[in-house]
Specification:
Layout (H helix, E strand, L loop, with lengths): L7 H14 L11 E5 L3 E6 L2 E5 L14 H24 L5 E10 L1 H5 L9 E11 L4 H14 L1 H7 L12
Antiparallel strand pairs: 1-2, 2-3, 4-5
Helix pairs in contact: 2-4
Length: 170
């Protein structure tokens, strides 16, 4: 799908109009809930959708679904794709196709607490985005910079996000 013929321009304009009319219209809340089952699996509800989450046997699961860090990679890649599409539209850059892949290195010593000097999350994530279309490399580099500056999931990774956890017991 070429972004120049998409409906994104209308979405961007309508959102801009709504936010200009009242800055409160820029605020969005997303929700998720999870219920544990089996050894380490869970069912996560995201609005009207639900996804299964599990771990491979080496981490105590039955490998019946993707694990949380794989879902993180999926979130990052899908957010990149959305952000590429939106910013291509905003910048007037024609994109015919976008493909993205990612891999991350995780040292389980941090997760299991074997070494508190090792972080429990990815030590590094590598992303490769392939964009096809008629534009020059420089235009696509301009687009990549805009994506890097505006992708919400990339921002969650690059910048600390305050998280407040409340423990409830029954």
């Amino acid at each position: 799908m070429t972004t120049s013929v998409s409906h994104l321009g209308g979405v961007i304009a309508a959102t801009d109009d709504a936010v200009q009319a009242d800055a409160k219209n820029a605020h969005a809340v997303f929700r998720a809930s999870a219920t544990a089952h089996d050894a380490v699996a869970s069912t996560v509800t995201l609005g009207k959708y639900s996804v299964e989450v599990d771990e491979p046997p080496a981490l105590g699961g039955e490998n019946k679904a993707a694990n949380p860090v794989e879902y993180y990679l999926a979130s990052l890649l899908s957010c990149q794709v959305v952000t590429y599409r939106v910013w291509a539209e905003k910048l007037g850059i024609t994109v015919e196709d976008i493909k993205a892949k990612a891999e991350g290195d995780l040292d389980v010593r941090g997760f299991f607490g074997f070494d508190d000097d090792v972080r429990p999350g990815f030590g590094e994530v590598r992303v490769v985005v392939t964009v096809t279309g008629p534009e020059t490399r420089e235009r696509y580099e301009e687009l990549q910079k805009a994506v890097d500056d505006h992708c919400p999931v990339l921002d969650l990774t690059r910048n600390p996000t305050p998280i407040h956890t409340v423990l409830e017991t029954a």
